Hints:
The chain is mainly alpha-helical. The protein has one domain (62-283, 323-447). It has 17 helices and four strands. The strands form two sheets. It has a two-stranded antiparallel sheet. The protein has a two-stranded antiparallel sheet with strand order 3-4. Strand 3 and strand 4 (328-333) form a beta hairpin. Helix 5 (89-113) packs across helix 16, helix 6 (117-144) packs parallel to helix 8 (190-209) and helix 9 packs antiparallel against helix 15 (383-398).
Amino acid sequence: MTLALPPAPRRTPSPVWPVVAVVALLGLPLTPGAEGGAGPADALSALVVGFCVVRLLRRRRRPLSRTAATVLGLPVVGLALAAVGASSAGAGLTGLGRYLQVFVLVPAAVVLLIRDRADFRLLAWAFVGLAGWEGAVGVHQYVTGTGASYQGQQIRAVGTFGVVDVMGMATVVSFGLICAVGLALGQASLRQRAVAVVCALALLVPLALSFSRGAWIATAVTCTAQLCLAGMRRALKAGAVVLAAGVLLVGGLGIGTAMLQERIASITQVTDAPDQSVTDRYTMWAAATGMWREHPLTGVGLKGFPEHRDSHASLALSSGSDTEGAGAAFRRQPLLSPHNMYLLVLAEQGLVGLLALAGGWLALLVCALTGLWRARRTGLGPDCALVSCGLLVWQLTDFVYADIGGPSTVLTAVALGLAAWWALVGGREAGDGEAEGMTPAHAALRAEGATR
């Protein structure tokens, strides 16, 4: 007698939609001249965390495995010590809240709200959609001369973030491009993969017009890694397509302006003939290292870098960077961070904080790569794994040139949560033979029917 499999449970609306709403809110234009504090997306992310807590209390079950809880909760150790060592209670609480939001609470909520690979792909496509919107605004700014000021001309593409978060659009577009590349290398329908390829190629234009050297380097490293993980044959084919697209854009359409070519060439001149922005960055890196030498274990405390900067920086440091354009008047932006996440954590949280934070990120990357191997062994599509690995590689690379700050920071938290779901949940389920598109409840019913 053949036992028929029970029908799949009726799929309820995905709980990941509130996270998609957080991503969508980042597309709203910011008020010119704002200070770059918490925005609507940050407020909604706090509501998402609350929604996740209420949902867990109603279900009354252990939400995370021991491994997941350890990896996601590891940064709390260094943050607590650094908050105690802050110069004031207010600075300690403010810094603690921000770090917990970006690296613990929001990522954990995203992990808990994603049910399966379908939810993962939904959120990944939301990243692509936001990148497309911001990229379109950025290209319009470049064409019409309404962007941020760059070498005396208002042509720098910054999207809706303006000069408040001049790197925001580059980050958003990079995340979207990485998600598009991962989805294009999966095993979805030909139509979906074709759309993903078109989106990835289109996003190269606003990424170039952002004039962000750090984002360029991180994206190049990440896409190369994704293609290699997908297989060398695919890597060679994709490389040929990208090369042809570059020749078309630069040579055929004339997008490669003299300023863009000069910016690209400056990447190789950061040691021989650095400009003032690079000199300021080197000076602040040295200042952060000096702070760490004085407080090697726990650092100078959260939000302590600006207070200790002048006593450790050399005279080569300028008073700030000039910002103008995209609807904002000229202003002098103070340099309050070393623009290197690792050195910022080392200066303010010491070795304890750096090992806790960076150790957690590396653990996620190892778990994501292990999940990719499991997915290949069980015949599942590699798209989720490639997106997860790509987001982690990009963030780990970009943190060499940037740190957290600005309205776009909440997207970093969502990206870490998206990557962490595959590393800590999805990749492990792939090893257990989870079928494509099958909910965990239906997978359990199928397994029960197979053993009868």
